[in-house]
Design goal:
The protein is mainly β. It has helices spanning 6-12, 34-38, 181-188; strands spanning 40-49, 58-64, 71-77, 87-91, 101-103, 112-114, 134-139, 144-148, 154-158, 162-165, 224-225, 237-238.
């Protein structure tokens, strides 16, 4: 008879339930409709909100419904310089100004943008954290755009992928000093990203971990495990290509 070990409990049990009470709807672009493909739509920023667990302010933008006589509101990631009451435009014919949403093919080289779509219509996947941005390097003749990601890597995207002009708000958030040991203590023990204290697996009981138990603290089996291993056994070096000490000189290649 088996037992759910601690590693399985972290992902499922009620003791680690997601704190979704203060969450808002996912901030993203509008649905890519006819109005944005052929012209533009006008929206107004009603207010800026804070979401628990997210360092980026959320802008609540109000648009007119494309087919019905009513208004709809959409949560979007705020950029630096965005304010309540500001008009923003989304579409192929929108102007190049802070907060507007345009296809990459309509932005000139050197434009700084954020919340970039990886595929047309996915409503934004790249550069969504506070202070991040993407720089447009150039356009090609086959309908693609070369961009520089926040990591420094370069990526080629379709011209029809949309992005927001500007830098994501909330930059410099992690530059604030902790000032005292108590702040670092609670940060390390926060639910969701606990990093300290960490108990060694061989020091646990066999009911808590596959590496636990024994008269001596040892693994007792191979530390490598298959990718297809069952839950509860999938611990250690999962699907390792190689193990052991790295020998020889390391070659560093440029990202250019």
């Amino acid at each position: 008879m088996g037992k759910v070990i601690q590693m399985q409990r972290r992902g499922h049990a009620h003791a680690y339930r997601s704190h979704s009470r203060a969450k808002r709807a996912r901030p993203e672009h509008r649905t890519f409709d006819f109005s944005e493909r052929q012209g533009f739509v006008k929206g107004v920023v009603r207010k800026l909100n804070h979401e628990a667990g997210r360092g980026v302010p959320i802008a609540n933008v109000e648009f007119r419904h494309p087919t019905m006589y009513k208004k709809v509101r959409k949560n979007m990631l705020a950029v630096e310089g965005l304010f309540s009451g500001q008009f923003i435009f989304a579409g192929a014919k929108a102007g190049l100004s802070i907060g507007n949403i345009l296809p990459l093919g309509k932005m000139p080289e050197g434009t700084i943008c954020c919340n970039v779509e990886n595929k047309p219509g996915d409503k934004g996947k790249i550069a969504r954290r506070s202070g991040e941005s993407v720089v447009i390097i150039g356009h090609t003749d086959d309908g693609k755009t070369r961009v520089k990601l926040p990591s420094g890597a370069k990526k080629t995207l379709l011209n029809s992928c949309r992005a927001t002009v500007g830098i994501i708000a909330g930059g410099g958030r992690i530059e604030k000093p902790l000032l005292k040991a108590g702040a670092a203590y609670y940060k390390s023990k926060a639910i969701g990203h606990k990093v300290w204290p960490r108990v060694r697996c061989v020091a646990k009981n066999p009911v808590e971990h596959p590496f636990g138990g024994g008269n001596h603290q040892h693994i007792g089996r191979s530390s490598t495990v298959a990718r297809t291993a069952v839950a509860g056994r999938k611990v250690g070096l999962v699907a390792a290509r190689r193990t052991g000490k790295l020998r020889g000189s390391r070659q560093i290649y440029s990202k250019e």
